[in-house]
Amino acid sequence: MKDTFTETVLEVRGLTTTISGKRGEFTAVENVDLTLKRGETLGLVGESGSGKSLTGLSLLRLVPKPAARIAAGSVVLDGIDLMSLTEDQMRQVRGRKISMILQDPQTSLNPSFTVGSQIAEALALHTDTPRKSLRDKAIEMLRRVRVAAPEHRVDAYPHQMSGGMRQRAVGAVAISCAPDVIIADEPTTSLDVTVQAQYIRLLQELQRESGMGIIFITHDFGIVAKVCHRLAVMYAGQIVETGPVAQIFDQPLHPYTRALLSSVPKLHGQIGRLPSIEGTPPPLWDRPRGCKFSPRCPLADHRCRNEEPPTVDSPAPDGSEHWARCWKPEAI
Fold first, then answer.
1. Strands 41-45 and 213-217
2. pLDDT per residue over 128-151, tens digit each?
3. Angle separating helix axes 163-175 and 134-144, nearest 10 degrees
4. Contact at 8 Å (CB) between 56 and 50?
5. Cis (ω within 30 of 0) for the bond into 64?
6. Burial (CB count <10 Å: 0-12, 13-18, 19+), residue 265
């Protein structure tokens, strides 16, 4: 994608979130730096358990308490550090300025209320929509996310809708107040391929209309290539590489990024066994010293296993930022 974005809508610096359990307190999201421009889509990718969803929840200060807590960092949205706000102030920001589409709609839709009433609640809280118009506005939101027969579905309870419809209803709640930033946590997981394409086009249309920034959390590189402008690769709670999508696809700096890309099936060439990444991501209570990927990295040596890797820059041809945390960046 060739789009150029200038205005920063979200800037995250040093975000660190910890989780406490029987084994003690451990770091789950470590020193995360992210920048999102207005109208831009930033992809956040990595294996399950890498910290992607917890990062998204941390941005909204919705980490599960008391087990999790945000230990450090700043999240500046339109010039306001969300970490400095009171909880009452954050309630005014969530939904109106920044929203999240959760991966599992079952966890974000209240089974005791109709879908329409949940959309109307967000509208009543964050907009000046007249109360008598809330139902009509909720129907309009459902229609925008391509829910069939929205005049009837507006009175349905979540359990009366299919998984795909529930996912779109969650999207309707998230976009109802036209936020500046939407965090989409694998929003197409429960959708079939055709509806998935429609849903992605919808997000892109809304983005063009409003200029909102999107953080798209996914493990699907096909979606990344189609939707995202920049990419951040996450492993063991850390951002290990970030840069323009095309640059990372062509010249990944980090061995983990290269391994993820090599595991994606190719349409052309000889068909054979797909490469895999040996081992599994480390548990929170047993994260390795040095580079967190070193136990699984075929290039790792003594220094990789014992010293934190430096940040290495390799700017894209157009000058865009591209960096990785690695002792042996493969594209330099």
1. parallel
2. 889 889 999 999 999 988 888 999
3. 120
4. no
5. no
6. exposed
Type of residue found at 164: G
* Residue 322: CB atoms within 10 Å: 23
Q: How far apart are CA 263 and CA 275, in angstroms?
A: 5
Q: Which residue is associated with the tokens 């990595």?
A: 46
CA 100 – CA 327 distance, rounded (Å):
35
Cα 102 → chain centroid: 9
pTM exceeds 0.85, yes or no: yes
Confidence (pLDDT) at 157: 95
Q: Which amino acid is at 178?
A: A
Q: Is the dihedral of CA 120, 123, 128, 129 positive or negative?
A: negative
> Which value, in Å, is the radius of gyration of the alpha carbons in the chain?
20
What's at 173, amino acid-wise? V
